[in-house]
User: Fold these one by one.
Assistant:
Number 1:
Amino acid sequence: MRIHLDGVWKAYGEGPGQFWALRDAHLEVSSQDFLAIIGPSGSGKSTLLHVMGCLDLPTRGELFIDGEPATKKNDRELSHVRRNRIGFIFQQYYLNESMTALQNVLLPLELGKVKDRKRKAEEALDWVDLSTKRGSFPSELSGGEQQRVAIARALANGPEIVLADEPTGSLDSENGKKILETLIGLNREQKVGLVIVTHDAKVAACGTRRIEVRDGRIS
């Protein structure tokens, strides 16, 4: 998979209150890459990730998925890309508190009507070393374990690229280290592309590529 931003600008709001979160962004990421994105708060890092993941479309410029303009895809096609080709991991885990770890991982697979979904969900939890926690609810898990459930949910459908927004930001150093090791293993062992937004210089140093975003511009 190849994601390419060509002169992308992204604005929020209209009129005098309009804010440009991205300005003339040029970037290309492919499967197996490990890109770290750094920059101060409010610089446009998360917006960049959202555009790359087809959660937001550019205001100007173009986003290409495997050479095809994302703006030419309809909602169903964009949903297919988000659900089947890209995995998303956020600082907040966004787990359903009334569901077990296994049910949380199963949910997007069921919505996508994926075959063998229970097996895929179990394998994803096994990969993040949570096979013994399948029946546990989020309230019974530590913060690090909840983030690993979120990672398993992102991996269950076999994405080609995973986009992670501050995945270790709310964790203590020990759990943050474990999560980083899990993500590095994902990239190296499963050859899944990895893009991490981070404030942590140690996390950024693990990437094979690094860019900085400041005032909406990539450098």
Number 2:
Amino acid sequence: MTSSLQAGLEALTEGRAQDAIPLFKAMVAANPRDHDARYWLASAMMQGGDPEGARVLDDARTMHALSLARTMDADLQRLRTDPDYAIHIGGVLYGRGFVAIASVAWGMALSAGRMDAGTLSNYALALQHQGRVEDASDAYRAAAEVQPIATMHQFLVYAQLFCEDGEARHFAEARAWAERYLNVAPPAPHANGPRAGRKLRIGYVAPNFAKSQLRQFIAPVFENHDPEAVEVVLYTADGAADTTWPSWIEVKAIGQLSDADAAAMIREDGIDILNDCWGHTAGSRLGVFALKPAPVQTAWINFAQTTGLSQIDYVLHARTDRTPNFDGLFSEGIWPVAEVFTPFQAGAERLPPAPTPAKETGRITFGSFNHPAKLSWEAAAVWATVLRNRPGSQLVLKYRYYADPVLQRATQALFLAHGVAPDRLVFSAHSAGADYYRAFQAVDLMLDCFPCPGSTTTLEALSNGVPVLAMCGDPPNVGGFYARTLLEGVGLPELVTNDHQDFVDRALALTEDVEALDALRARVRPGFDDGPISDGAGFTRRLEAAFGEMFDRWEAAGGKSPVGQVA
């Protein structure tokens, strides 16, 4: 390592950007093709508050991506001049998990004039997977303007959640989406008869239940529904993919049906409560719900925020004695169901409990297994403060997109801007089975993202006995409230923090005494296994009772939808 580089790194880790900037500028001037020098300079400029640091970082990413593409046998000249080739290379790289390199290839296709919606949305997706969320939002908006259809616009709706002030922006975009594409005539009156003396008919809608991220959440419900009290119909894209549920649950395929035809089927089936389990993610069938095929419609499980549809009556949430007021963030009413938002089924391959790894390694290992899109600037700043004040500690960032060397290097630049040396970060890509579960045993304390927290990753950590430190906020946003209910659900309210300083103080206090941290760890898995998150039967009884009460309210209102009412 050169003396200039060493001096520059020391200056940045000590917060002396003014001393580092000239050193790194000289390195760039001496070798303009050195992308590493540009990464260092970007870190220094960002630490110093220079807005041009973002542009320098972008230059570094582009140069780095092109140098890697060359080693992968990409023809750089064709990338610049042949948009079809650039699109092809982008697809190949994206398929291998190299999202940052793919975004450069797709960006070149756009620069060459291929401004179609497909290329724009692919480019946006690759940006989003790197955590470049504002750039992704801009690209999604351009795609929605080029191809103004509901499914294209939904990418933009969902992307708002990762941006600054994301939940308010998501609400505004979801409402605009619904008004533009799903502003349909009121439905004909529903002919559902009184509930007395019959079973309640419940429908669930998602592209797939058994082979998607829904399975661990929905399985405890499907397996515990009471066939003496309810009839259940699953409406999926391909019924053949959902054959593992109890035999009395009916499965119907609607993947090849139009929204109108699917809605007609559901109405003909006499569904009393229709539940959307997918939200605004790809494959959504919210267009079916806009036609109001069931008298009561709810949204839940894959999406904690609003759908934007006035035709959906309720969003299900957790019930606590401190449920916040989310006025201005939902077009639906909020119906609290149980102590937690959903149950969750621990992975069958999880390993036996293990002690906190610092007892053996002698250092604290923090971790985050969340999607890079959730790693906000503010979360990185707070985590970096923790790392700086816990000497010798490291942070493991695990997600399949961290296989991309450009994303790794840009993430190092982000943390260096906050004074954390690159060697404090450990990147881990995709793993499965025992290797995946073993990764949890290497982490002492998980750091949850904010303002958009983890969900499956948090539950996987808790079910594997790893404590997760989260920020709820005061007052909490929707995501913070969700994170709080998870931790309270495993009996660990001390892992909920209210602001940035509280998060830092709690992380340092928890990792000050390794024996105390190990004692905390010993409480996590039993709290998960014995708490309401693992009580699928109890949750499902409460859910069925809530669905029954919703239908009774509709019936008592003379068959009118109680939109906006909150239980």
